[in-house]
Design brief:
The protein is of the alpha/beta class and about 240 residues long. Helices cover about 40% and strands about 20% of the residues. It has a 9-stranded mixed beta sheet with strand order 3-2-1-4-9-8-5-6-7, sandwiched between helices. About 40% of the residues are buried.
């Protein structure tokens, strides 16, 4: 199967019920070319069992989840999966469903007006191998109008020339192999004593950030130091690509 025939990357989008916070239209449009997995979760109080909550609120919750699904379908999404869950532990639910649905990434939503500049921090080739196919699917879905910045923070003893040659150069070639116009790709190297703070600062100049998880855990994705700080300080959405292992 060729890249053009391959199934699109998939992303988990959590939908808190019964009254979801509406996702920005531009974010829905940006994610529509992907396989979207909506996890509608209804919080269950300690004194109530999930079965009891489902019996009482399923119709209302499913209706609200269907509204979100229809927004993605109206934006052109061809592959939208919906999972309705009544739970007291949303992180356990996300971990299980992201594995069952083989989700490539998890969305941490935030405001977005347009998708013109995309920041992709890369740590190394293995990290890039997981992230770049997802980035390619996202950029191709934007009709080729999104500028991509590949950012690498130098590690101890590492020099810019080596990073450009051994990481960023091959990363650009990988994007090209996935059909991305490399004229839209910028390579940037950053030397800093505080990588997390520097990435958060740089992210504020972009519309969306895609980065890899540091640990294979949905809990660490949603509350990991860098993703959380980017969303809070930069006031923009973040997509965290899972290792899938």
């Amino acid at each position: 199967m060729t890249d053009s025939e391959a199934a699109p990357s998939s992303i988990l989008v959590d939908v808190e019920l019964p009254a979801p916070t509406p996702l920005p239209e531009e974010l829905v449009a940006a994610l529509a070319p992907l396989r979207v997995v909506l996890v509608g979760w209804y919080p269950v109080p300690e004194q109530t069992t999930p079965a009891q909550a489902r019996d009482q609120f399923e119709e209302e919750a499913q209706s609200a989840l269907d509204v979100v699904a229809r927004r993605f379908e109206a934006a052109g999404a061809e592959a939208v999966a919906s999972r309705l869950v009544f739970t007291g532990d949303k992180f356990d639910t996300f971990t299980r469903i992201s594995t069952e649905e083989a989700c490539d990434a998890v969305l941490i939503p935030g405001p977005i007006e347009h998708l013109r500049r995309l920041l992709v921090p890369l740590r190394g080739l293995e990290n890039a191998r997981h992230i770049l196919p997802f980035v390619a699917d996202l950029v191709r879905g934007s009709s080729g109008t999104t500028d991509v910045t590949l950012l690498h923070v130098l590690e101890e003893g590492e020099v810019e020339g080596t990073a450009q040659k051994e990481l960023l150069g091959p990363a650009v070639k990988q994007l090209a192999a996935h059909g991305v116009d490399t004229e839209l790709v910028e390579r940037r190297v950053l030397a800093t004593d505080d990588p997390a703070r520097s990435i958060v600062k740089v992210a504020g100049h972009y519309d969306l950030v895609v980065l890899g998880e540091t640990q294979p855990s949905v809990r660490s994705i949603l509350f990991g130091t860098v993703p959380e700080r980017i969303v809070q300080a930069g006031n923009l959405p973040v997509v965290v690509v899972r290792h899938g292992e």
